[in-house]
Amino acid sequence: MDLGIKGRKALVCAASKGLGRACAFSLAREGVDVTIVARTPGPLEETAEQIRRETGVTVTAVATDITSVEGRSLALEACPSPDILVNNAGGPPPGDFRDWEREDWIKALDANMLTPIELIKATVDPMMERGFGRIVNITSGAVKAPIDILGLSNGARAGLTGFVAGIARKTVRQNVTINGLLPGPFDTDRLRSNMKAVADKAGRPLDEVAAERAKGNPAGRFGYPEEFGEACAFLCGVHAGFITGQNILMDGGAFPGTL
């Protein structure tokens, strides 16, 4: 399927590895010029070079912290008028809410709620003026089924979800959609880090915990980042203009509900 976005410009956050990287690749394969952002220059440049080599699109790499005011300014300077915005940031660490201080909550809110809101604020009006825009927020399956040790993430991402629900119905008339893409257990460094915390607490080998969790998913496995990237690209395409304000769960069937 031709997604109809060749020649568009995308800003993809936290894109040096994991799900953000997969989204950048999928968009680039559709002919979208991508600006990718991540904190660490080495992996970011490696990803940028691989995308250039495999797709031939223009790739701009911005090594910065997207959760900071300065970082957002640098990203928007490199890509001032994106047609597509993929919001993404590493989630806060797992733990017990009794151990978290106010600073921990503020850091989580800055990364996983306020940064996406600021980037939406900076880009959505020009998108509406041009008559095309796609915003995808990578959140978490925990928005629908909270995970007890991920309280910081649960709270911040749920806040972003509520905010988007209020504006996504205001932008769609100008062909600007805003949706959430909610990953369940995808085989990424983030998942491995969370499972290691569980394994360490239980005094069990990580590989044993990982195999057990993968087997316990209805799909019998973890998700592949490439699957996630393709779903993101579809939401950014011309055929997805009637989808807005939605939270699309990709979890291999783990969530047992109907809504």
Automatic annotation (TrEMBL):
Per the database entry, which stretches of residues form a coiled coil?
A: none
InterPro entries to which the protein is assigned, alphabetical: NAD(P)-bd_dom_sf, SDR, SDR_fam
Domain of life, source organism: Bacteria
Question: Do you know which Gene3D superfamilies this protein is assigned to?
Answer: NAD(P)-binding Rossmann-like Domain
Q: Name the family.
A: Belongs to the short-chain dehydrogenases/reductases (SDR) family.
The protein depicted here goes by the name SDR family oxidoreductase
- Biological source species: Pelagibius litoralis
Q: What phylogenetic lineage does the species belong to?
A: Bacteria, Pseudomonadati, Pseudomonadota, Alphaproteobacteria, Rhodospirillales
